[in-house]
Amino acid sequence: MADIGAVINNSCVIVCCGSGGVGKTTTAAVLGLEAARLGRRAVVVTIDPARRLADALGLVDGLAAEPQRIELDSRPGEASNGELWAMMLDTAATFDGLVARHASDPDQIERILTNPLYRNMAGAMSGTQEYMAAETLHTLHGDDRFDLVIVDTPPSRNALDFLEAPGVLARFLDHRAFKLLMLPTKGGLRVLGAAAQPILKAIGRVVGSDVLADAVAFFQAFAGMESGFRDRADEVVALIRAPETSFVIVASPRHDTITEAVWFAEQLVDQQVDVSAAIINRTQPAFGQGTAADARAAAKAATGELAVLWGNVADLRTLREAEHEVISPLGDAVGHDRVTLLPLLDSDVHDLDGLHTIADHLFDRS
Q1: What are 189-243's pLDDT values in tens digits?
Q2: Which ranges in the chain belong to alpha helices (H)?
Q3: Cα–Cα distance list, 223 to 113, 181, 352 (Å)
Q4: Cα(310)–Cα(292) distance, integer angstroms
Q5: For 25, phi and psi rounded to 5 degrees?
Q6: Residue ranges per domain, the chain?
Q7: % the chain with pLDDT above 90
Q8: What is the distance between the terminal CA atoms of the chain, rounded to a whole angstrom?
Q9: Among residues 269, 236, 239, which one has the least CA distance to residue 338?
Q10: What is the DSSP string of 46-103?
């Protein structure tokens, strides 16, 4: 069983990864709640606008694009000076803030923010959400209000884009085609003809219109900002790969989500990133000590209602053992001592009490 408490105590950043629908956002909130209980100042960043999470955190108006502090009532016998904050990623607003940070003057900010190509890129371009999630992580990591940032990433396959997006941006800024687009002279625009057409056509396909003029205007308005973006991207890459950044894979006990989790764990290993823990939500409870075979034997030895009850226990234990077989490949991939199972609850999480219930199971507070 993974020591999730140690992961919280030893990390400055926790990245939660997993398929959609496995409880990843709720898990991120629970980790933040426990961090606050341990005295840390944690902020949870989610890409999921689900109303249910906002309700669970007591946010009547929903999650905002800026960190909001969550009012936490101390449980009986507990006292903590920790804090929990939460926010939802706003891709366009984050992109605008990045432009404003690196522009040389208000006029340059205005030229970029009002450019039609930029407006399409900020909201629709592939990879923008993932890069802005990484950018938000970097910004919050440098915010003195917080000593732990917990990121709820997009579903697994896209989460790799979250890891790779800063490096992709840095490589793009160094690409010859980009440098040609940045040439401000008429001579430079003539050079654009053959060399830059492929990239402009690619941009046109993304935004769905012929944007050649807008593209040229955008890249020339961008002049002088590329070094700031490149340096920032390099810093984000370094933070993601830093020892104090932990990766937690979240899954459920189904073949598809475990297969996805194993694939993602292997991709992380290929990128020299270690998996700190794997959390499997909604597993069958243990129903006492013993195996399904033990329960079946007890059912045969019993009579009447007791035999029926033992038969039910045997069926439930059979389901649990089948789940363990499904989960086993993930343990093989990340280490069985890093896998924690959370039981299926009798109701959905819809308030802080529900988050506390999950935390009690996750941190073995019986």
Answers
A1: 444 445 555 655 565 555 444 445 666 666 667 666 667 777 777 888 888 889 9
A2: 4-10, 24-37, 51-56, 91-102, 106-113, 116-124, 128-141, 156-173, 176-181, 186-207, 212-221, 226-240, 255-270, 292-301, 304-334, 352-362
A3: 14, 10, 48
A4: 10
A5: -65, -45
A6: 4-287+321-362
A7: 41
A8: 15
A9: 269
A10: ES---HHHHHHTT-TT---SS-EEEP-PPPTT-----EEEEEE--HHHHHHHHHHHH-
What's the rounded Cα separation, in Å, for the pair 196 and 201?
9
DSSP class of 366: -
For the chain, what is the mean pLDDT?
81
The β-bridge partners of 88 are 46
pLDDT of amino acid 272: 81
Third-level CATH fold of 4-287+321-362: Rossmann fold (3.40.50)
What single-letter DSSP state applies at residue 344?
P
What are the Cα distances from residue 138, in Å, to 94, 143, 144, 150, 273? 12, 9, 12, 11, 18
Phi and psi torsions of 340, nearest 5°: -120, 135
CB atoms within 10 A of CB 301: 10
Structural tokens at position 160: 């790799």
- Residue whose token pair is 């629908």: 21
- Which pair of structure tokens corresponds to residue 225? 């900002």
Give whole-number Cα distances, 266 to 156, 254, 313, in Å. Answer: 12, 18, 36
Q: Which two tokens stand for residue 97?
A: 């803030």
The answer, as to whether pTM is greater than 0.70, is yes
Q: How far apart are CA 57 and CA 352, in angstroms?
A: 6
Our measurement of the distance from residue 195's CA atom to the centroid of its chain's CA atoms, rounded to an integer in Å, reads 37
Tokens of 161: 């884009």
Residue 112 has pLDDT above 90, yes or no: no
Close Cβ partners of 31 (under 8 Å, ≥ 6 residues apart): 4, 8, 14, 16, 42, 44, 150, 248
User: CA–CA distance from 215 to each of 46, 121, 181 (Å)?
Assistant: 31, 11, 9
Tell the burial category of 73 from Cβ atoms under 10 Å away from its Cβ (0-12, 13-18, 19+).
exposed
As a whole number of angstroms, the distance between CA 248 and CA 265 comes to 10
